Every structure is written in structure tokens, then in C-alpha cells.
Recover the amino acids of this structure.
């Protein structure tokens, strides 16, 4: 007889607690009833068991959730994710607890040779564009003939040179009119000067 306490009428074993079977050869599995909660693992011990909890749970049966965010481990308005204790950092911050100020210029966001300046505000930067480029990242070629800042008057055609400057080509029928207007303006100015001198 193994693990037994005695024989009754020569046929039966009275097993010690935790054992079963005709000859008490079977160790009773205390985990058979699956008493551990929340995906924990039950480890069978003699006359008892132990629940091995997955991260985020505790207690005899792993029934109590641990709030990893209760200590407020995330900095700078980051969001803490319970059960994994991960901090979701807002723009401009990095690190396990979001305490590292990111230098936005390190990634080279400004284009076409523009200079990047980090802002005192986390997550912000500005680009100083080289000549002939514009836009927040200096990615928009500057067109001096763009209707927003076209320097040509009287329906003249604006021409962009390779150096980024503009020239105006007057329409043939308006060249004479423009000259007449300029002469009229010059005469008005000189008459005004004479009038001032005479007074």
C-alpha cells in the first residue's frame, strides 16, 4: 500500500488526504475545478494549489485587478493604459513615462534646405524657408506670378525667370495706352509742383 493509512478487511486502502485510487496511487489534482481566474495558471501542490497570476491581477484566485495607473506614472498629460502600464504620450513627448521632450527638428521636417527651429511648446516647430519656397514645411515653390501676388498690372503677362524673379510682358495694344497714362501722370505731377512754387 502506498500513501495509505491502513487496510480494511484486506481489500481496501484508506487513503491519506490528497490521494485516491484502489492503492492510493493517485495524487488528487487540486486544480481540477479550475478555480483560478483571469487567465491565470493553477499549480497543483500537495493538498492545496497556487494561482500564478498574469500581469495586472492579484489575489488568491487572481480575482483582483491591479490598477497600474493609480500611482499616475504617466507625465505631461499622457494617457496611462491599465493592465499593461503603458503611457500613450501626447505629441512632443516620449519615453516610458512621457517625460522626455522630443526635439521635433531631429526628424528633419523642414524641406528644401529650410532651417528648423524648435518651439518652446512641446510638439511644435517652425521652418525658415529659403528664397523661392513657402508653406509650413517650405515644400511649396514660391511663384512670383501667382495671382495672390502677381506684380503685373493691366492684364500684362507675368513671366517667371529661373532665378525666381518675375517680369511683366505688356499686351501690344496696351503699350501705347500705358505710355499715355504715364505721360498724363507726369504732367499732373509737374503742374502740381509749379502750382506750389507759384503760391
Amino acid at each position: 500500500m502506498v500513501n495509505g493509512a491502513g487496510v480494511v478487511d484486506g481489500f481496501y486502502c484508506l487513503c491519506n488526504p490528497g490521494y485516491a485510487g484502489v492503492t492510493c496511487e493517485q495524487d488528487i489534482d487540486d486544480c481540477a475545478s479550475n478555480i483560478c481566474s483571469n487567465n491565470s495558471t493553477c499549480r497543483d501542490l500537495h493538498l492545496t494549489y497556487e494561482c500564478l497570476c498574469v500581469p495586472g491581477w492579484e489575489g488568491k484566485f487572481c480575482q483582483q485587478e491591479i490598477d497600474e495607473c493609480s500611482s499616475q506614472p504617466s507625465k505631461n498629460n499622457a494617457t496611462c493604459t491599465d493592465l499593461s502600464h503603458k503611457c500613450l504620450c501626447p505629441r512632443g513627448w516620449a519615453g516610458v513615462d512621457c517625460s522626455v521632450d522630443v526635439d521635433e527638428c531631429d526628424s528633419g521636417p523642414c524641406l528644401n534646405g529650410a532651417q528648423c527651429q524648435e518651439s518652446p511648446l512641446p510638439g511644435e516647430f517652425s521652418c525658415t524657408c529659403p528664397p523661392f519656397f513657402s508653406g509650413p514645411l517650405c515644400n511649396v515653390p514660391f511663384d512670383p506670378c501667382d495671382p495672390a501676388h502677381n506684380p503685373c498690372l493691366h492684364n500684362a503677362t507675368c513671366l517667371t525667370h529661373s532665378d525666381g524673379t518675375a517680369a511683366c510682358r505688356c499686351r501690344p495694344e496696351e503699350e501705347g495706352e500705358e505710355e499715355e497714362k504715364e505721360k498724363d501722370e507726369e504732367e499732373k505731377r509737374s503742374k502740381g509742383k509749379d502750382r506750389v512754387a507759384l503760391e
